[in-house]
Write a structure and sequence with these properties.
This protein is mainly beta. It is built from two helices and 13 strands; from the N terminus they run ββαββββββαβββββ. A hairpin with a 2-residue loop joins strand 6 and strand 7.
Length: 182
Amino acid sequence: MKQQLTRKTIFSFIVGATSLAVVAILLPNSEKAISRLVLCSTQNLSGSASLQGENGYRVGNLTIENNGSTPCRLPTRPSVVLVWHGVALAIHQKVMDDEQSRLVGGTPVSVLQPHAMAAVALAWGNWCQTLPSKIPPTGGSLLVSFSRSSSPVRINIKNFLPARCDLPAELSSLAVGRFRSP
């Protein structure tokens, strides 16, 4: 079977003790194949999330599973909104750097096969507002979406407690990592 090759060429520099060699490697046309896949629909996803305390932050992960029958394309990272008993919390979403994103392990994922899972690292910090009083504090969830036009999927958070207030004049923030294999 003949593979299609892209015109993109990746140069690897191999440095030896006395010489420098440039090797050109042609890669299969995988980027084009991935872009042809449909963006994952939140209707075909289920998931779980947990956040634990660490140095004033609540860190953890969001794991999703493709319940559909076909592979789908994932964005680099999802849009995530924290919700407390049906009320969206005013939290600024930030991009988590790749080093922190590796907390969930695995390698970056851009395609989610049927019944496969992908995970995203989360870090919530500096919550200085009060939550509406609900006892016990177990009503937290995430609204997760993959594009502005997609409907979000609601995923409950295990053991939901707010992040610590460290800087009252600053906004609360939720850092979201990239999708990785769990």
